[in-house]
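G., before I forget:
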Amino acid sequence: MVDFYFFLNFTNMKKITILIHCKDQSGIIAAVTNFIASIGGNIVYIDQHVDQEQEVFFMRLEGEFEKASFNTSDFKIQFQQKIADLFNMSWELHTAAYLPKMALFVSKYEHCLYDILGRYKSGELTLEIPLIVSNHLDLKPIADSFGIPFFHVPVSKDNKSEAEAKHLALLSEHAIDFIVLARYMQIIPEGFINQYPHKIINIHHSFLPAFVGAKPYHSAYKRGVKIIGATSHYVTVELDAGPIIEQDVTRVSHTHSISDLVSKGRDLEKIVLSTGIKLHLDRKVMVYNNKTVIFS
Amino acid sequence: MVDFYFFLNFTNMKKITILIHCKDQSGIIAAVTNFIASIGGNIVYIDQHVDQEQEVFFMRLEGEFEKASFNTSDFKIQFQQKIADLFNMSWELHTAAYLPKMALFVSKYEHCLYDILGRYKSGELTLEIPLIVSNHLDLKPIADSFGIPFFHVPVSKDNKSEAEAKHLALLSEHAIDFIVLARYMQIIPEGFINQYPHKIINIHHSFLPAFVGAKPYHSAYKRGVKIIGATSHYVTVELDAGPIIEQDVTRVSHTHSISDLVSKGRDLEKIVLSTGIKLHLDRKVMVYNNKTVIFS
Amino acid sequence: MVDFYFFLNFTNMKKITILIHCKDQSGIIAAVTNFIASIGGNIVYIDQHVDQEQEVFFMRLEGEFEKASFNTSDFKIQFQQKIADLFNMSWELHTAAYLPKMALFVSKYEHCLYDILGRYKSGELTLEIPLIVSNHLDLKPIADSFGIPFFHVPVSKDNKSEAEAKHLALLSEHAIDFIVLARYMQIIPEGFINQYPHKIINIHHSFLPAFVGAKPYHSAYKRGVKIIGATSHYVTVELDAGPIIEQDVTRVSHTHSISDLVSKGRDLEKIVLSTGIKLHLDRKVMVYNNKTVIFS
Amino acid sequence: MVDFYFFLNFTNMKKITILIHCKDQSGIIAAVTNFIASIGGNIVYIDQHVDQEQEVFFMRLEGEFEKASFNTSDFKIQFQQKIADLFNMSWELHTAAYLPKMALFVSKYEHCLYDILGRYKSGELTLEIPLIVSNHLDLKPIADSFGIPFFHVPVSKDNKSEAEAKHLALLSEHAIDFIVLARYMQIIPEGFINQYPHKIINIHHSFLPAFVGAKPYHSAYKRGVKIIGATSHYVTVELDAGPIIEQDVTRVSHTHSISDLVSKGRDLEKIVLSTGIKLHLDRKVMVYNNKTVIFS
């Protein structure tokens, strides 16, 4: 990994990603692409989406600049003045050099934790995992075997606000960018959510909006569905109702018991959660109106 | 078709299908298979299922007998006395010779109608379609072009019981075995449902239990799901809550408008409904506790 | 349908689609979008792809112009001079008004024919079908019932060049834009293919490149695969080796006989072929290096 | 785990699984089920399959006996004399108590190894992994972190037979029941294969029979397929041509580079290999004529 980044530093190209949304108007694409070209950039990827119903425009653009000629603060000032102000845009700039910091919250189920840590260790996820937080001690040995600091923060009816304070302190201390609830099984308090808007990714073990809440596999079994699913979504204040990032499903039949559904569902949960993490990491998700635009 | 059945009549084997369910007990499989063997039958297929939670046993068996040695009424009497009474079974016997009679109920959407009639004409569905019933006249030309009698029974707030009476009269007159609602878009009255228990198949254009009721594609769009589905199920008194026969899904994205969902959904509806019809036709569906056992 | 087009004629916007490919270079996107903006157009959709290995750039753009201010020939001249010559582009312009003319070639299997005609009649395919061509008479009644002219052109070892001449004459006479082989089961001669490059769509009943050639379901059965597929592709001189437009698959098991595979495959073939037709129709397919770029 | 088996030992029921195949004949099912009933057993699962073309009968049966009344050797003798000899059966008896011993062969890719070890540690795979064997040292740290003995057996052109001898000695020494090649990337010699017939499971990173041999993702990219796959199969002497246990696929598009295919393929490989392992473990696979029967 070190060698790889060392090498990247010695290319003379700077790669940037821009995410834009604003009211749909004529001429946005031309204005943005023309601006990039005018300051010597090359567009290597562009994708755009218009929500026709809401009349909102979304764009994701990847560009390359010669390092010598690119200055991040200058770019920000100029883009704001010449483009963003003109179209009343909300926009973000990301540069490829930064490795996002992800916190993992877990409880007692280990399958998503093993899956994420395996992907992390094999270089599939280009991020840092400064800490794992849990309300139980059960998964500490796994964190230890992968060499990741583990923090035990018990949560009970009586210590909820104290636990929240500890959580927020840990996240702040480790400069965490986003949080993944890898079957954490606890409801995140509103104050916590508001500090990390669209930055907490949960995996729900059903095909939302079917089977919201606890024990979805039991409900799926009872209803006799022929397909079960899993959903990764951003956490919002309303339970299991946040913007959906990714979903996947698998066939089941009358031969499957509840524990078979749980077992088959584990594989779905792993894939759907890690896909959600990767999309977030690659800045391919934009949220609007409690829905996501997922760029390719 | 005629030649085919002519040929079948000249084989000297009689093919039967038996469906059984009863409280789970020791020795059922041995008793049934031993009985079939004892009267000279050969079992060509056997599948069984035990609902461990409810302690219910289900079995589907296909057997062959030499025609000369098989008498349907004798078989029924003997099986009842020697086996069914012993285990307190509910059971059905079906013989391959009979072509079930299916009524099609449609409204204004033609895609499922075209699909079913295409399959019917090409010999994929071994049944008879004595009539098509609709509350509108729009699809009459399609019925005509396929040479199937079309009955127009308008339904309004004021004539509901009159319409129901007409429906039931038509079904009775044509000796209909089961009814398929091919996007019929009208609620079937309780009295009608009770006359055809688990014999009315509906296609619902969502992945049930998500998006029950009207306009599921609109709801799916609003929720921002990444996968849409369709469900074929037996109609029961509670809306869209009957035993699920088959479901299927397809991926969608933020780029799809509501009308794209409607369009993609049409293909799902066609496949899921025709699969449901075929499973029902092949006597592969057993209903218990508002769920289905689907034999392979 | 008439009313709908009547209405369209009275909007004052002209919708165009441009497809571009050329060697990958800096500044293409900015140049194109800037050009469209400079002549008063609004870009409603843009998607681009770069084949990094081959260094080829592909773009699909949909734009809208006020009718009063848009002239097709002027646009073509200006775009060629100001943009296409600059980047040495290959490009095409399509206007939404034109309804493409599709010829259907069939043999004895009716499932794809029924499927396409059902979609056509219900307005799902916005095209014209001036004729159906077949080497057999079996499917003539279907063509008749849908009111489409049917031409019987027998093909044998001895009359191949005569048949080809008849085919080409029919296609020319009816000003056919593209041809769909709906399980036509005959090899198309090289001369024919060369007159319709990337304009003949075939459905092959396997997951290519597995099981090229005749009887793929038999081969799939023999190999014991757990999934079967279908592939729609443009016909090229090498059998079943042309650019793939769409593929889909379905699960099978040891319980399925060859005829079960054939039956399950029919549904795949219908969906995969009609998806291929729709992508071609919507100008969403570009061919390069015997592969396709499929825009969303 | 210990507690669980401890508990099992204290139930008074003995669970057995029988796999049978023989020429298809009348009366097999009745004879077998009657035999089980006659010695006091209860059949909890039965599934059968007839290969109509080859006229071969397959059966999988799970039964329960009171421990006090069941003796394995007696059962074997009686079943052989009273049933198997009568129908000239090949058959196997498995008892639930035994934990199979699996050897893992790996090379440099870690994703399947992480996946299998994660499932193993979380109790999803009820087996023992006495050793991991590799021709490289790269993955030793993973084996160490999971506490599993790692044996480094380098393989080169010059030491092939020596390496084979070492492999066979290790397997014998650890009483290995079956071997999993988790992206081992070396061809297994014929002598080795013959010692473990249908007991070596490989994962091939394509949808077989497409893209046999090396670099299937490169070939898939070059052919422009829209779906890629993975296949788990028993190793036979002909490369990538053994009986297929499980396959799965995922959609790809022109936007995916070869390294994207590799990355998407990893998730397929993990699921397809672990499914293959579980089916083998549960005695749900029977091999005949280079194909598998997979019981549900």
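The longest strand of chain A covers residues 13-23. Confidence is low (pLDDT under 50) at residues 1-9 of chain A.

More on Monday.
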